[in-house]
Amino acid sequence: MYSTDFPHHFPKNFLWGGATAANQIEGAWNIDGKKLSDAECIKGAQPGTSHRPTLDDATLSSIEEAVNSDSEKLYPKRHGNDFYHRYPEDIKLLAKMGFKAFRISLAWSRIFPNGDDEQPNEKGLQFYENVFKEMHKYDIEPVVTLSHYDVPVSMTLRYNGWASRKAVTAFTNYTKTVFNRYKGLVRYWMTFNEINTGASGFHATGALEDELTTEDEKLQLRYQALHHQFVASSIATKQLHEIIPEAKMGCMLARSETYPATSDPNDVLAAQRANDLNYFFTDVQVRGEYPEYMNRFFAEHHIKIQMEPDDEALIKRYPVDYLSFSYYCSATVSGSHGLNFTNADQVKVSNPHLSATDWGWEIDPVGLRIALDDMWDRYRVPLFVVENGIGAHDQIASDGKIHDDYRIQYFRSHIQQMKEAVKDGVSLMGYLTWAPIDLVSFSTSEMSKRYGFVYVDLDDNGNGSMDRMPKDSFFWYQKVISSNGEDL
Ligand code: BGP
């Protein structure tokens, strides 16, 4: 609508807060009826080597070996940061910072230990109910991810995870159970964390690729698994609207703005293709349809997605209510030849205008504004930044404190750009930092890749008291929230 005015501030009910995931914080992997999830079957960094195992290294034999091991030291996601036992203390700390919202995920295997058990595990359901009630004590709004890289290992071993249509039935039985149970406690939900990363492997789909040799075979498996997730997401959205009419469902995208290395049209096209490959996911989940530009990709890679007759109608009828996304860094690519959608046609290069974290993630606050402006323009549904943060090696100074100015600087610059996007007219629901309390890194299983406002006394080898201590950024974020983003 035409106006000579524009917003100058964040909205009054802006959801300031932070985000976490069950498999990186809870620990208690085998307590109160819980069974293993895939993430808890990946080893951490081995002392003395530089190898950092990732979930995509998983093979059937490594998973079977993990299932037979009870070592929390070898598998750091099994101890997390002990949120399972310390959640009252943790939520109190978040409340002290003035949090309006806190994102957690539910561990599917805490509620349905094998994924598709006949009855849910009451102790698992009760745990999250207690956590939500604790948040409400302080007027903190829970934001809940239904699946944050979290597939019960039993689903992987029996069905190869999301490769099987059986996962849709099991998952939507789980979602129906939790919507009924947490009615009145949770308004904001999202289905699959960073759903687009499922295009690159096991960590998001729980589908092993041991038997597959060609890239096209792997793509076939992944896009079939992703189709199952799209269908499950639409069914969950339908259920949510029926069971909790006032609740909202979001999709969740890993957004990394991709730039062309130069003004060479081949580079520009390569960057556009990379961005389109991400838009594919939101085109399906927000617009409710498979976009035409993917047909060429599917055909060129011999991908044939098996659909049931109602799938496309279901996806069309039940899109999400809002679009949430993570944003950490941007990427820069140069194109070569062939210009279809394969990664082989793109070469990642470093961006001379940006600095990077210790893990090589290029810090780019302006990229966040570009992403926000672009996505608002394309979809016209409310946007929600549900992850943004910097992993760093924090040091305890001689005064016993952690002076994490680099983290403050990172957040400050991103919030400034987010504010510019609000001025540009973007409808933005909130901002959740990753992660308010130090936790086990997803990609590397390290504890020393720290993100928190709150330090956790725990090292990469699982040693430490797990005691919590606010860093300088804690007090800074407290000020940001109380001024609704004015005092940066
Ligand atoms: C996102 C994941 C999170 C989180 C974050 C930081 O991709 O959704 O689970 O871990 O990245 O990544 P990492 O822990 O690998 O540094």
TrEMBL record:
Coiled-coil regions listed in the entry: none
Tagged with keyword DNA-binding: no
The keyword Hydrolase belongs to this UniProt entry's keyword annotation: yes
Catalytic residue list: E387 (nucleophile)
Classification via InterPro entries: GH, GH_1_N_CS, Glyco_hydro_1, Glyco_hydro_1_AS
Pfam families membership: Glyco_hydro_1
Source organism superkingdom: Bacteria
Keyword terms of this UniProt record: Glycosidase, Hydrolase
Similarity comment text for this entry: Belongs to the glycosyl hydrolase 1 family.
The protein's name: Family 1 glycosylhydrolase
Organism placement in taxonomy: Bacteria, Bacillati, Bacillota, Bacilli, Lactobacillales
